[in-house]
Design goal:
By secondary structure, the protein is mostly beta strands. It contains two helices and eight strands. It has one domain: Sandwich (Immunoglobulin-like), CATH 2.60.40.
Length: about 120
């Protein structure tokens, strides 16, 4: 069943803060596929929630790095290749280079086999 990835962030602090999110995709078979980074978000303070999806990270965020051998094909076909992957999201506050939090998830992509004609036999 096709699915998409979602990232939910909740800020519970009371003071103003700036943050950005960096997402990396790594393949067990191919190594680092790519890394993207969100624009800086400025919070006035108080509780706030954000919901990001794959489309945000791929089409609207800044590309930090990418493996063009994989990403060029994915852009053409709209699919990433079959394999085992790990997506990691890291949140950075202000200009910090060390994340304040991170979360990773493992997943697999399996492409269906093409249809086969069973009859007629000739």
């Amino acid at each position: 069943m096709p699915s998409t990835a979602l990232l939910s962030l909740t800020y519970t602090g009371a003071s103003a803060s700036d943050f950005r999110v960096r997402v990396s995709l790594t393949s067990t078979e191919r190594g680092l596929i790519g890394t993207t980074e969100s624009p800086v978000v400025t919070l006035a303070g108080g509780p706030s929630s954000f919901l990001y999806n794959v489309r945000d990270a791929v089409f609207e965020w800044t590309t930090v790095s990418r493996n063009s051998a994989v990403t060029d094909g994915a852009i053409k076909t709209g699919q990433i290749p079959e394999g085992t992957y790990r997506a990691c999201a890291r949140v950075f506050v202000g200009t910090a280079t060390t994340p304040v939090t991170e979360a990773c998830a493992d997943f697999s992509i399996l492409q269906p086999d093409p249809p086969q004609l069973l009859a007629p036999s000739n």
